TrEMBL record, chain B:
Protein's name according to its UniProt entry: FAD-binding protein
Stretches assigned to the FAD-binding PCMH-type domain: 51-229
One MF term in the entry's GO annotations: oxidoreductase activity
PROSITE patterns given in the database record: FAD_PCMH
Keyword hit for DNA damage: no
Coiled coil region boundaries: none
UniProt cofactor(s): FAD
Species for this entry: Borborobacter arsenicus
Spans through the membrane: none
A Pfam family reported for this protein in Swiss-Prot or TrEMBL: FAD_binding_4
Keywords on record: FAD, Flavoprotein, Oxidoreductase
Length: 424, 498
């Protein structure tokens, strides 16, 4: 194990200082771990670097024009601060970024807007509204070459040059340290109601959700939460029968009308409950944040992205081989899986591949497992090589979050275990 | 810009033309290789007709394997390739090069799969934008992005250009509606990005590809999401005495939490040209005409129509008509949709620009345009995707008058500079292509552009795919890869460290 002679955490307060830190790191070929609040540090491949670039002091909303639907902020601005500001103006980040804290057992309500982009967060409304990558308009960043660059702008419609802002989405800080972000914001719905069909088997739930999403009821979120996961939603408010949940948002009269449309459409599917706005919001927040599996354990939890209507068959096949609990968001396009014991990575990934493709991310597991297994879905060789070339073009010396997504180029072995001293 | 400088043709490639044509015939047997001057004329230009160039040879492959073989062949011999869909680009994105193979994807014209439970369509790239909607409309679905060329433009071209349309404020651009693609890299490798799932894994290469203008790879398959058609749509036609009032009305509608399906504005010259052409019943005395379309369940549309009408009145609208029938709604749109040809009637030629601005800057930009119009002695009419700030100024000129095209182009460049100056961008939906290539430094520093070109280096290190587009100056990847390292000392001693 390496002995760390000098542990440094840089906490720049401006983009210019961030640039200097990265130029220093480049000159010394000293890899940096880039963090905001560190709220997602337990997610992804664990890395160990001697130095940390902490962007949490790079904070503050720089521009917010509600009528222009645009907000710019320093990357380290707390997400909570931005959501509060937007709510004061009846607006929101429509992609509904989730909070991993309940699942990872960290403090809730943390996380920065830069982290939202780096992890390409979204929530149940992703089905209709997209993810962070669909709402990012522009960025300023410092590449691993020690150069400050910008991309995009502050307007929605913009095809001027390559969309490097999107390239930052889901890049986990491995391409550049983003210093400023500009997001499109949208009006929050006047109200919401959720329709719950009770007691459906996974297969019937898939049919019901497909029917609802294929109607003109403009369902913005669709989830199926079987037993036992359902008992943990909204402190047990939904009871223990499987719940197939369809969220309808918008202006009052429209919500009422569309609920009637849905009720009529699904009247033969099962017993129907409606959840009024407050309960609806709580339910979707819990689904968003994977509260059913927030059990304080380290049992492996997977986040599987796949063709929505194939999910239930994949889960059924998985259950033949491994004990697990599952629930479905995005009509099935997002499957949350908690494994009883072994993560069964190969079995799961094989089944996803056979079910129309997609990818599985090991979002919760012990440190040892995350170091030993590919946390992110391994890519086919040509694609992996392309991704590696892209990384090389942004960060040729591998100083930005090396090994966070895939093992760092040239690293012969897995990174050493992350010790307490290394993060203190 | 008429002095457009394109990459110097490679003499070795030109000399070996006959051999290259013969080899292309081996890869693509049958009718797929076009090499006579007469037949190649059909491909010498795209929607930006001011520029023409015959390619080295035109190749129309039919299979992914053929595309892969062509690209690999060209990569190994350093032969340039220009990809082309339907050739409707308004920025010269598919302008051929004298020494380049023109790779035309129009024979990739089949819908491969319609999946209603997952609400996706998988199509070959040469299928038209409207062709996708046609394939699913009997089940009440449609594909949302609707560029005005949708009857002709291809879905592969839409991916290359990240095409928009009048509905993209509410329903997003191509980038928000494409779930997956298959593409061939310049080295002949075939890769798939995304699929029917919503989040792609790894880096967002799909996001990078969308809007990359054919410089990163050749798309061979596209999976898009489809939406259920709204139950109803109704429109308001609202006239204002000033563009400021029209602009404020747009801001107030959005401020009230309403995102209309479409929101278009026209200025006085555009209103008059359109009305003279199609007799849509547009009010002629107003300075700004707003079309606001609301779609969704009838009860929602009625509810919002009332709100929008009240907002319009509060902003001093002088006329406000609400469509009472589908025919009337279409009549409101008829003038707007015919705005380009209508302007074509009142002027021998027109030049269509495409900047985006923060909406609140509209009055300032319109005033600036009036001043420029006087300076250049050319008229300008404006249509405006008001919801998202995308301006389409149409500059009226006569190409038969010597120097007038140059003047129109200079005028256009000044408008785009003004857009950037007020916080906007050079192009909202038409792309950079060759048209706005040399204006890129107005918006980006050399470092910004170099980093974009480095992305190109990851995909196509020899700069063989569509060179001469987007970037004002091509730099070799080896040169771009050099690093200037400074800052070896610990920075900012005053930065808190722990």
């Amino acid at each position: 194990m390496r002995v760390c002679m000098l542990m440094t955490t840089f906490t720049p307060t401006s983009a210019a200082e961030t640039l200097s830190v990265i130029q220093w790191a480049l000159a010394n070929e000293a890899p940096l771990e880039i963090i905001g609040h560190g709220s997602k540090r337990a997610l992804g491949r664990p890395i160990q670097t001697e130095h940390t670039l902490d962007l949490s002091k790079l904070s503050g909303v720089m521009l917010y024009e509600p009528e222009e639907l645009v907000l710019s902020a320093r990357a380290g601005t707390p997400l909570a601060e931005i959501e509060t500001l937007l709510a004061e103006h009846g607006q929101q980040l429509a992609f509904e970024p989730m909070d991993y804290a309940p699942l990872l057992g960290t403090q809730e309500g943390r996380g920065t807007i830069g982290g939202v982009l780096a992890a390409n967060l979204s929530g149940p409304r992703r089905l209709k509204a997209g993810a962070a990558r669909d709402h990012i308009l522009g960025i300023s960043a410092v590449s691993g070459r020690g150069e400050a660059f910008k991309s995009g702008g502050r307007v929605v419609k913009n095809v001027t040059g390559y969309d490097l802002s999107k390239a930052m989405a889901g890049s986990w800080g491995t391409l550049a340290a983003v210093t400023d972000v500009t997001f499109k914001v949208l009006p929050a719905a006047e109200t919401e109601t959720t329709l719950a069909v009770r007691g459906l088997l996974d297969e019937d739930a898939a049919t019901a959700m497909s029917l609802a999403l294929g109607s003109s009821a403009e369902v913005s979120s669709a989830a199926h939460v079987p037993y036992p996961a359902v008992t943990r939603i909204a402190d047990g408010a939904l009871g223990s029968d499987a719940a197939t949940l369809l969220r309808v948002e918008g202006f009052g009269p429209s919500v009422d009308y569309r609920l009637r449309t849905l009720t009529d459409l699904l009247k033969n599917a099962g017993t129907i409950d409606t959840l009024a706005a407050d309960l609806s919001r709580t339910v979707w927040r819990d689904i968003s944040d994977c509260v059913p599996f927030a059990d304080g354990s380290e049992r492996p939890v997977w986040r599987v992205s796949m063709a929505p209507n194939e999910a239930h068959r994949m889960v059924m096949a998985l259950r033949m081989q491994a004990a697990c609990d599952a629930f479905y968001d995005w009509q099935g396009g997002l499957v949350w899986l908690r494994m009883e014991a072994d993560p069964e990575a190969e079995v799961l990934r094989h089944l996803v591949k056979k079910s129309g493709g997609g990818h599985a991310t090991l979002v919760r597991a012990s440190h040892a497992l995350r170091a030993a297994l590919p946390v992110f879905e391994p890519q086919p060789p040509a694609l992996a090589a392309l991704a590696a070339r892209l990384k090389q073009q942004f960060d040729p010396k591998g100083i930005l979050n090396p090994g966070r997504m895939v093992p760092a180029a040239g690293s012969a072995s897995l990174p050493p275990v992350h010790t307490e001293e290394a993060t203190s | 810009m008429t002095g457009l400088v394109m990459p110097t043709p490679d003499t070795e490639t030109m000399r070996r033309r006959a051999e290259i044509v013969a080899d292309m015939r081996i890869i693509v047997p049958g009718e797929g290789v076009v090499d006579t001057v007469n037949e190649m004329r059909a491909f010498e230009s795209d929607g930006l007709t001011a520029y023409r160039q015959l390619p080295l040879v035109v190749v129309l492959p039919e299979t992914v394997l053929q595309v892969a073989k062509i690209l690999k062949y060209c990569d190994e011999r350093a032969i340039r390739v220009v990809p082309r869909g339907s050739g409707t680009s308004l920025s010269g994105g598919a302008l051929p090069l004298e020494d380049a193979v023109l790779l035309v994807m129009s024979r990739f014209n089949r819908i491969l799969e319609i999946d209603y439970p997952n609400r996706t369509v998988t199509a070959q790239p040469g299928v038209t934008n409207l062709g996708i909607t046609h394939a699913v409309e009997q089940e009440g679905f449609y594909y949302a992005p609707d560029p005005s060329s949708q009857i002709a433009c291809s879905i592969g071209g839409n991916v290359a250009e990240n095409s928009g349309g009048v509905h993209c404020l509410k329903y997003g651009l191509t980038a928000n509606n494409v779930l997956g693609i298959e593409m061939v890299l310049m080295n002949g490798e075939v890769v798939r990005l995304g699929g029917k799932h919503l989040d792609s894994e790894g880096y967002d290469l799909l996001g990078l590809m969308t809007g990359s203008e054919g410089l990163l790879g050749v798309v061979t398959e596209v999976t898009v999401r489809i939406l259920k058609k709204p139950e109803t749509a109704r429109a308001l036609l609202i006239g204002f005495p000033t563009s400021e009032q029209g602009g404020q009305c747009v801001a107030d509608i959005i401020g009230a939490g309403i995102i209309p399906g479409g929101m278009e504005m026209m200025d006085r010259p555009a209103i008059h040209a359109a009305e003279d052409f199609v007799n849509a019943g547009y009010p002629l005395e107003c300075e700004a005409l707003l079309i606001v379309e609301l779609d969704g369940p009838g009860v929602e549309v009625d509810h919002l129509i009332d709100k929008v009408e009240a907002i319009a009145l509060a902003n001093g609208s002088t006329t406000c008509r609400i469509s009472q029938s589908e025919d009337e709604r279409l009549a409101f749109w008829a003038g707007r949709k015919a705005a380009f040809p209508a302007v074509g009637r009142i002027s021998p030629d027109y030049y269509c620009m495409d900047g985006t601005i923060p909406r609140k800057e509209l009055p300032r930009v319109l005033a600036g345009m009036r001043a420029l119009s006087e300076k250049y002695g050319l008229r300008v009419a404006n249509v405006f995707h008001a919801g998202d700030g995308n301006l389409h100024p149409l500059i009226l000129y006569d190409a038969n008058i010597p120097g007038e095209l140059d003047k129109a182009e200079d005028f256009g460049a000044d408008i785009l500079r003004l857009c950037v100056k007020v916080g906007g961008v050079l192009t909202g939906e038409h792309g950079v292509g060759v048209e706005k290539r040399d204006l890129m430094p107005e918006m980006f520093t050399e470092i910004d552009l170099d980093q974009q070109m480095r992305v190109k280096c990851a995909f196509d290190p020899q700069h063989l795919l569509n060179p001469g587009k987007v970037f004002p100056q091509l730099r070799r990847c080896a040169e771009l890869g050099r690093m200037h390292i400074s800052g070896g000392k610990l920075p900012f001693p005053d930065i808190p460290r722990f």
